[in-house]
């Protein structure tokens, strides 16, 4: 198998990549204005294209991207899932689909999960807090039951377009705290205890969770902390270690070292955050280079990070075969 610069194999899979449905120029202008109003100072019009995503992959030794997009209305979400399926149908060896789930409505979620085979989805994507409903909400129990039955892989991503905090866009810092709050509440709600067959991939290397895991393990089961499910310290440690963490915008030692204190190298997965305006080609390449040069991991462990999605999304392995043959 041929290699890219630095000796790393070309067959990496990017678990954290976004897409969008085509928009008119007026829609793009409205989106740009809304971003700027939320302190996200990106006034340019942005339209995702498969060609641009493939060009990025080819330039960086990536075989496939797992695409996700989670609009905030049910109609738009369903339309987006259908468009994502059409992209994968056109480029089956370059893209996979993470079916977006409308987690403010359990019945709508179950309906969308029921379209998995029809849309040939490879896994699922959920927002930490979707229309003011957190993933820890007890109304979602039927959804977790169904995903447990399917032994599903679920990609968990924060809302990067919420209201700004202290004059800075949510995508810079607040995404990390929303993710952390949500995962901690899922832990206390007993979701990871009841549904161990669901494989959760947490965006941005688990956000602030790895850095706070020590504090959580030290204090989280003390008598003064509400803990209605009686989650033990041993359970906390095991359940945090069982999470999978992607490397989107978090490929440096600042993020990887705490992650490796919380879990193990085989639970890290390559992610780029490609396909959104908060990621430029320069920042994605810098992040990837930092990951590939991180001294806390062996070359074998780093290459495993690049290919870890094959285990979590087994349906993509057969579609990748033509790409594998092309580089042998």
TrEMBL record:
EC assignment: the record states 4.1.1.52
Q: Name one Pfam family in it.
A: Amidohydro_2
Instruction: Tell me where on the tree of life, at the top rank, the source sits.
Output: Bacteria
Matches recorded under SUPFAM superfamilies: Metallo-dependent hydrolases (SSF51556)
Q: Which GO cellular component terms, listed alphabetically, does the Swiss-Prot or TrEMBL entry include?
A: cytosol
Question: What are the protein's UniProt keywords?
Answer: Hydrolase, Lyase, Metal-binding, Zinc
Q: Which GO terms describe its molecular function?
A: 6-methylsalicylate decarboxylase activity; hydrolase activity; metal ion binding
Domain Amidohydrolase-related: start-end pairs: 13-274
Q: Name one GO biological process term.
A: secondary metabolic process
| Recorded catalytic activity of this chain's protein | 6-methylsalicylate + H(+) = 3-methylphenol + CO2
Instruction: Spell out the protein name for this chain.
Output: 6-methylsalicylate decarboxylase
Species in which this protein is naturally found:
Bradyrhizobium sacchari
């Amino acid at each position: 198998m041929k290699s890219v610069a630095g000796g790393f194999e070309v067959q990496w899979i990017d678990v954290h990549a976004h897409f969008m449905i085509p928009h008119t120029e007026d829609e793009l202008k409205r989106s740009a204005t809304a971003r700027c109003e939320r302190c996200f100072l990106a006034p340019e019009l942005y339209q995702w294209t498969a060609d641009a995503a493939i060009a990025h992959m080819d330039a960086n030794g990536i075989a496939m991207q797992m695409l996700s997009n989670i609009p905030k209305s049910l109609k738009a979400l369903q339309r987006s899932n259908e468009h994502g399926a059409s992209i994968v149908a056109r480029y089956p060896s370059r893209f996979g689909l993470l079916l977006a789930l409308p987690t403010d409505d359990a019945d709508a979620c179950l309906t969308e999960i029921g379209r998995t085979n029809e849309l040939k989805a490879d896994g699922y994507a959920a927002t930490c807090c979707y229309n003011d409903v957190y993933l820890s909400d007890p109304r979602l129990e039927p959804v977790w039951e169904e995903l447990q039955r399917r032994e599903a892989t679920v990609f968990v991503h924060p809302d990067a377009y919420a209201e700004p905090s202290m004059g800075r866009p949510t995508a810079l810092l607040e995404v990390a705290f929303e993710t952390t709050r949500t995962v901690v509440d899922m832990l206390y709600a007993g979701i990871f205890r009841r549904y161990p067959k669901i494989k959760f991939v947490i965006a941005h290397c688990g956000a602030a969770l790895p850095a706070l895991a020590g504090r959580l393990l030290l204090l989280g089961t003390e008598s003064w902390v509400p803990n209605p499910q009686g989650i033990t310290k041993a359970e906390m440690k095991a359940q945090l270690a069982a999470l999978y963490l992607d490397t989107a915008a978090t490929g440096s030692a600042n993020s990887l070292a705490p992650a490796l204190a919380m879990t193990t190298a085989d639970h890290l997965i390559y992610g780029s955050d490609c396909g959104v305006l908060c990621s430029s080609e320069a920042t994605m390449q810098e992040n990837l280079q930092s990951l590939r040069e991180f001294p806390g991991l062996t070359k074998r462990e780093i290459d495993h990070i690049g290919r870890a999605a094959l285990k979590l999304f087994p349906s993509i392995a057969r579609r990748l075969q033509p790409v594998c043959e092309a580089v042998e």
